[in-house]
Amino acid sequence: MATQIGDTPVVVTRDTDNEIYAFENRCAHRGALICLENRGKHRKDFSCVYHGWNYDPQGNLTGVAFKDDVKGKGGMPDSFKMEQYGPRKLRIAILHGLIFGSFSEDVPSIEEYLGEEILNRIERVLGGRTPVVLGRFTQVLPNNWKLYMENVKDPYHVIILHLFFTTFELNRLSQKGGIIVDQSGGHHVSVLAIDPDAAKDVDYAKQQLRSESDYQLADPSLLQGFDEYHDGCTLQILSVFPTFVLQQIQNAIAARQIVPRAVDKTDLNWSYLGFADDTPEQQLTRIKQGNLVGPAGHISMEDGCVGGFVQRRIAGDDQAILEMGGADANSSESRVTESSVRGFWKAYRANMGL
Asked: Which residues have a Cβ under 8 Å from the Cβ of 109 and sit 6 or more positions away?
């Protein structure tokens, strides 16, 4: 498949040896794309339409049109060795079906990079099962990619912005939960567990926040799921620095890939996931609950536009207040905090050398 690492197009393949490979989607000759389709199966090679240079599924240059001259004239010089040329290859790591890649060899292993706590949370959702893609789409956001990552890491807005959450009591202040922030600050997990014994809180009314509505679901079965993890956790939003999100909301599992396109434009690639051992009923539940998220999702529809509201206001203004819950970037038992947002900027500054 063709995808992106940051603003660099890459190709990810599975060769006949069943191994995963990834390389820059760029011809070594003049830089044209060598893969024009977003996805496909059983590709034996990739050929540049510009000059016909050919590559195998591992990214090796295997053919150059008219390399050996035409009627004794032209062609590449004798010093040209195909094995010395080709697109840049990525270092690949696979974790529970997720593929991570880097152009640098001077990076730690994925296990070291993520740390035990984040690894355990990924394993909780994906471990021991074979993921199956139920659907994909790309949502175009009218804002810088960093604003979307802030939003992902911001549990403070969830209980205010998303009326669906509070109306149907999927996410309220009285429920158990917390925030995990790793040592680097860059990775985080937001966790929520329904507490059937928790009294319905009055904090929303005290704050004069919109927390209830007369809205009803024409099909209430949208919220009727199954106990998948047996730990009471109904929501887990996990982010990996800089641009990856793994989501579990009820039984709706999704991977989100954030792709910067411009200063004020971001592509958000969604992949809805099920598992190979799902029953037909479980798969239907996942698909129905997929309506909670995405550009028209009952929950995350607001996320698609609120970043644009911020983008329009902050152009030329680099000040913001991120003091909810204190000034640190540590894990918290409270979700009324911006600790994981502060953690993102801690990691960003460290990576940028600021």
From this structure: 93
- Nearest residue to 162 via CA among 341, 287, 303: 303
CB 56, CB 11: distance < 8 Å? no
pLDDT at 219: 81
Q: Which whole-number Å values give the CA distances from 273 to 159, 203, 340, in the listed order?
A: 25, 35, 25
Report d(CA 315, CA 57) in Å as an integer: 43
The DSSP-derived string for 86-131 is: -PPBPEEEEETTEEEEES-SSS--HHHHH-HHHHHHHHHHHTTS-E
Three-state DSSP state, 254? strand
pLDDT tens, residue by residue, 121-167: 999 999 999 999 999 999 999 999 999 999 999 988 877 777 777 67
Burial class (CB in 10 A: 0-12, 13-18, 19+), 267: middle
Residue 203 near residue 173, CB atoms below 8 Å: yes
The pLDDT score that the predictor gives to residue 160 is: 76
CA 116 to chain CA centroid, Å, is 19
pTM: 0.90
Q: Which helix (H) or strand (E) holds 267?
A: strand 265-275
Distance CA 137, CA 297 (A): 13
Two tokens, residue 179: 């925030």
Spatial CB neighbours of 71, under 8 Å, sequence gap ≥ 6:
none
Distance CA 345, CA 318 (A): 13
Residues 216-241: tens digit of each pLDDT: 778 888 888 999 999 989 899 999 99
Task: Say how far apart CA 354 and CA 342 lie, in whole Å.
Answer: 15
The SS3 of residue 309 is helix
Taking only the tens place, the pLDDT of each residue in 181-221 is 999 999 999 998 876 555 555 555 565 555 566 777 788 88
